Structure of HtaA domain-containing protein:
Amino acid sequence: MSALHWGIKASFLGYIRAMADGSVTAEAGAELQESGAVFPLAAAPSGDAGAGTSAGAGVPAASAHTTGSRRFRGTVRFLGHGGVLDLRIADPAVEPRAGGWVLSIRDPYDPDARVDLATIAAFHPSGQQCIGSGLALTADGADLFFGPYVEGTPLDDFEIVDTPPTPAHPTHK
């Protein structure tokens, strides 16, 4: 199964985890690891053959070298400061925009909309994986953090790993 492995911002994760009331949780298919989050590839919505499937997945990742997007599912929620800090990184997607690529997320205030969280400077494909590097917060992305970060603040690189499906074992009679 293909997945997005992303530390988001290591210093931010460390800050939340060090708070007395801070918590980082994974929901809706995302998983937490010490180094960050893993978001599995989302199924393509009806009529959108390239959005989440391995064929035509779009991102210049691993074996996909086309021009579409690659969408992932799951939510990572950051809580702290008695609930004043409540940030959700949900359903990330790597998408082309005029002049480059962005990492977008589901808008935390309008679940039917998306927010371009960060720009992506470069991709480094190698075999079954691709590293997205040079991530920088957009103005809209910085606003989600309510002040400590500004547009252009670097985020952690991500890695998209394309794991081939496990072949079915034949049944022996």
In short: Residues 10-18 form the longest helix (9 residues). DSSP finds two helices and 14 strands in the chain. The longest strand covers residues 100-106. The chain has a mean pLDDT of 83.
